[in-house]
Amino acid sequence: MKKLFFLLFIVVLFSSEESFSQVKRSLENKSFMLKGEVIDGETNMPIPKVNVEILGGQYTTTNFSGRFAISAKIGDELVIKSDDFVTVYYTIKENDFVTVRVEKAKTESAPVVSKTSQNGRQAGFNVYLDSAKFFLKKDAQKSIEYVTKALEPKRGQTISKKEKSLAFETLGDINLFWSQPDLAIDNFKQSLQNSSNTDVAIKLAKAFAQNKNYQESISEFQKLLKDNLSGYQKVEVYEGLGDTYKAIGDGVKSVFNYQKALDTAKENRITPKITNLNSKIGEAYAQSGALSEAEEYFDNSLKLAKKENKQRAVSEKNKVADFYNQNRDYEKEIQLREETLEELNSMDKGATVEDEALTPQRQNYKIANAFVAQEKYKQAIPYLEKSIAEADKKEDLIVQKDAVRKLSEIYRDIGEFDKATESYQRYVEVVDELYIKKEQEISQAARFSKEITQKQNRIASLENDRKLNESRYKLAFENQELIQKNDRIQKWIIGSLILIVLLLFFAAYTQYKNVKQQKFANNILALKSLRSQMNPHFIFNALNSVNSFIAVNDERTANKYLTDFSLLMRSVLENSEEDFIHLEKEIELLELYVKLEHFRFKDKFDYKISIDENIKLNEFVIPPMLLQPYVENAVWHGLRYKEEKGLLEINFAQIDSETIKISIIDDGIGRSKSNEFKTENQKKQKSKGMGNTQKRIAILNQMYKDKVDVKVENVFENNEGTKVELILKKD
């Protein structure tokens, strides 16, 4: 009697549970169109292109007015997410217009780090980074510890921008593998701030998609398409776009991008990607309801997967079997799952299969479900028993729970209540065991998340310490789409304004260029004018010397002087049209001129010309007749009036390979006393030679950026003697 009562209780329990669930589902499934807007909390301005999602359900984005509409139910959690502000979670309590105010996310600029050339430091960094990559899929904490060690500052050493980029890329890889896409986004951004890298940018776009920042992901992928990508990178970008559009339910764009990726993969013969993309196109068509097209691509992916390794083949068979399940083609599904089981059993025991669906217990369970869907309960029972046995051996409580419950329901439906009761009791035990395990996993996950966050904070602390001694910079990603204009008039106005600005810029640039060219031409004319004035001045002074010889009836001396003077005049006239001559020629002219002056005033001074042997005279150029006025001043205004015999020194010394110093030194009466000897008429007239020379030097320095530097000073403390120094640069 008790046994009969218990069986009735089980039947009532199942039926009441189902009826209660139906009532609950009918209440919860009463959906409505929730409308709202997202605005900036500070400016109250609407924010477009924001990710709006019902947790586990619908997805949409805000329009250009910051508004959205999404299918929702009471109790759903609304998630408002963007890379530009803090994520907002909102529980829907009623069907009313929702206004969501958001706060901008706080960002910090990354510091500038100088490059290091120390091989020891570089080798240590690489060792730590290699160790981090080795433990990436095994031990996240240890992997992050190695990255931290790589980034730790050493005394007297700095970390280069490229090293920082590699370290943060590795951190992003760790976060992405361990399902922490939010941290991965931050680390990939840090990597790109330190060094631009297309592969890292692709990873950032994928991390955005995994974190459900779909609009940011699409924007990042589209920006990458404008870069110069390799064939493989182009495939990854199009594939990423396809994945993102598939995630937001846009089947048309998903298939379009998958097809672009497939075409590129075929063009570049990237075989593994060809298999994957056929499979993904099949999934996208299946999601859109185009079942015949989906089956065609799945057939292609199965054929291609067979040509690869066994693991790839069984993975594809499982995926296609899921498609047949959705399409209710259970016979084909069962056939593929049977083949999958055989290949799984034939694989090496040491081979690891990352996909949790590719396990014997899961495949047996799905085969059983396919039989149940066809109401072939007795054929399903052996597969459920195999699934339970395999799950128990592998400690897979989730599959074991589902299989035991399904077995209990089958026994109930076929009237074997004893076995149904026994299976249900086992189900309760597994549920309790699974509950304990889940609690442990949640605790471990919380502890793991806390430890990872602490290690991330340690790295952030290292960065903050480094910021105390290093300058900061900010490299922001500006990915903005052009705002659509309301009408053609606005577009025309904006285009016209841009054209006018460009024309103004062009006119200003042309005017600036013309002014610059005219100024240069004026300078050249001024130089030629001053140079033409130098020759008559020089000839006049020389003829005065000849006149003085003739005046004292010294015809022989006058003839000799005229002979040397004619040689000097020939050289001066030969160089009169040149802007610059080699220093060697200028020295020859100077030596000839000094010889003539000494010939005239031999009782007044001796002279000495010294040239540094290291100077390569043919490599330096100088304006012709630049030094002569300074020598003339030394003789005529300094040495000529000295009572005892004076000395004129002309020295050419090399400062460096690009610069020489020319010194003209006399021990004459000095500039102050010389001025006293001048007549009233001489005082009123400025020296033509010196005035022209100063103007020439000023113009030359303006045109050629300080080519010649001149300094004049007294030699002795009593203001006697004059020293002229000219610094001449090669270029």
From TrEMBL:
It comes from the Bacteria. GO terms for cellular component: membrane. Residues 445-472 form a coiled coil. Keywords: Coiled coil, Kinase, Membrane, TPR repeat, Transferase, Transmembrane, Transmembrane helix. Residues 527-605 form the Signal transduction histidine kinase internal region domain. It holds the Pfam family His_kinase. The chain crosses the membrane at residues 492-510. GO terms for molecular function: phosphorelay sensor kinase activity. PROSITE patterns: TPR. Gene3D superfamilies: Histidine kinase-like ATPase, C-terminal domain (3.30.565.10), Tetratricopeptide repeat domain (1.25.40.10). TPR repeats lie at residues 235-268, 275-308, 401-434. This is Histidine kinase. It comes from Aequorivita soesokkakensis.
